[in-house]
Amino acid sequence: MTGQVTTLPIITCCIGLASGALTGLYAHEAYVGPFLKIAHGREYTDVLASSQSAAYSDAGKILFAATSTVDTARSVGYRNRKTFCAAPVLDSGPSQTRAVSFWAVGYDCCNARGDFECGAAGNSGARGGVRLSASSILDDQYEDFTAAVQQAAAVYDLHVDDDSILIRWVENPMAEQAKTLFSAFGILILGTGLFVLLIFTAAAASALTSE
Fold first, then answer.
1. Dihedral (CA of 49, 120, 126, 92) sign
2. 134 and 78 in one domain?
3. Dihedrals φ, ψ of 170, to 5°?
4. Contacts for 187-190: CB closer than 8 Å, 24+ residues apart
5. For 39-75, what is each residue's pLDDT tens digit?
6. What confidence score (pLDDT) does residue 9 get?
7. Are residues 16 and 112 in the same domain?
8. 107 and 28, same domain (yes or no)
């Protein structure tokens, strides 16, 4: 019994440390990192999709002009475990050329060709975009989305701007920023709750084995 009582706290500590590290890593990669990318970037409004993307290289939140929207019919789904979707953001004005500076992306929300329904793309009143963060330790999504963009450009005879910006199409960029932060807190609170439960379980088990 003594050996079990002695090793139980050590095992509990190791499990707690491992789960805590994984929870923190997941929260950062899935929510905190994207939040920082959005929050630390500049906010631009009334942006024409036909503009040069280099002028918005530091953007975190973008509100496009009323004439700019996602061309859902010219999207492509690139399959790599998930379906990574990309669709050009185009302007209806005369300045729009084959060169595309902004691409709306998402995963598992389109067909191989067309039917792009990622984020708020189906909402005619949505004009917002939040910057996609670069690939992380847990995921190489940026490279997969880039592959989808290149594929879409080849299929629909478009040109990808050298400094093209990948965004998630949303109704309200500020609300999306807050949602991402709250999601991070939710994961951390859940992880803390599970750790407390683990401690109580270990304490109960230790009390039972010591009787």
1. positive
2. yes
3. -135, 165
4. 187/23, 187/26, 187/27, 187/30, 187/31, 188/23, 188/24, 188/27, 190/23
5. 888 999 999 999 999 999 899 999 999 999 999 999 9
6. 67
7. no
8. no
Number of neighbours of residue 79 by Cβ within 10 angstroms: 10
Specify the pTM. 0.76
Mean pLDDT of the residues in the chain: 83
87, 103 Cβ separation under 8 angstroms: yes
For 21-40, how does the pLDDT look when each residue is reduced to its tens digit (9 = 90+)? 666 666 666 666 677 778 88
Give the domain extent around 47: 42-171
Q: Which residues of 44-64 are buried (b: 16+ CB within 10 A; e: fewer)?
A: beebbbbbebeebeebbbbbb
pLDDT reading at 89 higher than 60:
yes
∠ at Cα 36 (102, 188), nearest 5°? Answer: 130
SS3 state of residue 55: helix
Query: What would the pLDDT profile of 184-207 be if each residue is shown by its tens digit?
Result: 777 777 777 777 777 777 667 666
Contact 181, 35 (CB under 8 A): yes
The total of structural domains in the chain comes to 2
63 three-class SS: strand
* DSSP reduced 3-state for 120: coil
For residue 29, how many other CB atoms are within 10 A of its CB? Answer: 16
Same domain, 129 and 26: no
By DSSP bridging, strand 42-47 and strand 59-64 are parallel
